Amino acid sequence: xxxxxxxxxxxxxxxxxxxxxxxxxxxxxxxxxxxxxxxxxxxxxxxxxxxxxxxxxxxxxxxxxxxxxxxxxxxxxxxxxxxxxxxxxxxxxxxxxxxxxxxxxxxxxxxxxxxxxxxxxxx
Length: 123
What we know:
This is SCP2 domain-containing protein. The chain has 123 residues and is α+β, with helices and mostly antiparallel strands.
């Protein structure tokens, strides 16, 4: 079995890093100013999770747990996260179906919409 669990989320987070370096990304950082920790399980929430931090205070994306307390933490399965980020699944529906779990500020969670993600050219 391969050591790196090539998640679809990895590619999305790479695009997010590039996006945050653009003017549109800098506007986002100014507008939102929150820190999100995202836990992604390949097949099941809470199992073999990879953790990412989308820091919209500093405008960066990192892999690994946030040092400190994020404004909001989300847990997803890889496919569900990609669906929400691409705008194919409504975040509220994902939450109601149990496809997304939220810890922390609900007002911060409501600002985490598919709009913050770059629109993929090809993915």
